[in-house]
Amino acid sequence: MAHLPPPERSPGFAQARWLIGFRLSGYGAAYFFAAGAFMSYWPVWLRDRGMSDSQIGTLFMSRQLVSVLSTLAIGWVAHRLGNVRGVILVLAGAATFLLTGYQFSTTFLAILAVSLVWGGVWAPTMALYDGILVNETRARGFNYGSLRVWSSVAFILGTVICGIAVDHNGPAWVLYVGFAGIVMLVPLGLMLPAAEARHRDAGKHAPFGIPDLLTSRPFLLFMLAAGCCQASHAVLYSFGTLTWRAAGINDVTISLLWAESVAVEIILMLGSGWLLARLGATGLIGFGLLCAMVRWLGMAFTTELWALILLQALHAGSFAACHLGAMAFLQRALPASGAALGQSVYYALGTGATQAVVFQLAGVLYAAYGQKAFLGMFVVSAIGMAALVTLTRIWKGNLLVGAQPA
């Protein structure tokens, strides 16, 4: 009698799993293609519109402040509705339409107005998407890092394409390259699994709320540690490209520096399961903070290309390791029914509010001290490390809310 192969070894199973992986990772790829263009070259677009260093810092800070409020509010709505994908689609459609407002904005106040409205719909989508991704990887047996890696690949493409476009056609093309990614958000958002329907009732009656998270000391320490690590990138994101341009590095080379940082990030994400098993969630965040401290200390004193290549490689730690550690912490510390709310609180307060403050600080420091502003980011990272050390002493991997610790 013939023996059938196990389902997980059958071609149909592998094909279905590949398709689910594509559906889960496609939205993030579109989002980060746009982010690659904007993160690397948005300050160049702003400078081309006549913005000063302090105005650039204010624009970044203002958008972050709006993002804090909108991410919290929309995260709460999605948490109550239980229809996370539907909320993502509405936000993605609004972001696509509102982005066109930048094309017609030429003054500081006009750009500020567009930034406030657009930031309110753009920022919450990533928190909600990551909530779906964390839940689905847990439910379907995927590795979070192996899916998120496609976002990093897309980021590289967005950065390199934007760098080439700016080099050949000027700063106006930053907006056009970014829009190419954003216009794909709705089509790819429609492909996200509607798996939140399985937890809809649980979402409406979740066993915790925002006050429970904000009164949990381990959760607050986690947000401070991970938030400081991510916020410490403020000078790099706001003024890194401008600093390197002033040092005589051309736009194509600058785009390759950004792409290199994410390429190394991909390598780390491919080994994320191995790293997580050995370092744990807090260990990954600690590794990220250590990389950040070394990175900003180096960038405060050099613009030599060989040194920048080495320092950009530390992005694998300062961003990717910290992010993976944060996602692992949320997966372990919160029940599945509260993933959307937990992600939204983390993105709004842990990274959003912290970045809003540090982005404004970055503008002030850079206007006063130029490249030495990176030393301020070293201090921000050190604060995060102090919070993490305290966290490791009081959190042992248990659920923080929604259930009594074991």
Say how many strands there are. 0
Q: What is the second-level CATH architecture? A: Up-down Bundle
- Helix coverage percent: over 70%
What profile does the largest beta sheet have?
Answer: none
Classify the secondary structure makeup into a structural class: mainly alpha
Radius of gyration: 21 Å
Which regions are unreliable across 5 or more consecutive residues at pLDDT < 50?
1-13, 196-205
So, the CATH homologous superfamily? MFS general substrate transporter like domains
Write the element-wise H/E pattern from the N-terminal end onward: HHHHHHHHHHHHHHHHH
Task: Give the strand content.
Answer: under 5%
Features:
406 residues; mainly alpha; Growth Hormone, Chain: A; 17 helices; 0% strand; globular
Characterize the structure shown.
The structure is a single chain. The longest helix has 38 residues, at 11-48. The protein has a single domain (24-194, 209-394), classed as Growth Hormone, Chain: A, CATH 1.20.1250.20. It is mainly α and 406 residues long. The termini are far apart. The relative contact order is 0.16. It is built from 17 helices and no strands. Residues 1-13 and 196-205 have low confidence and may be disordered. The radius of gyration is 21 Å and the shape is globular.
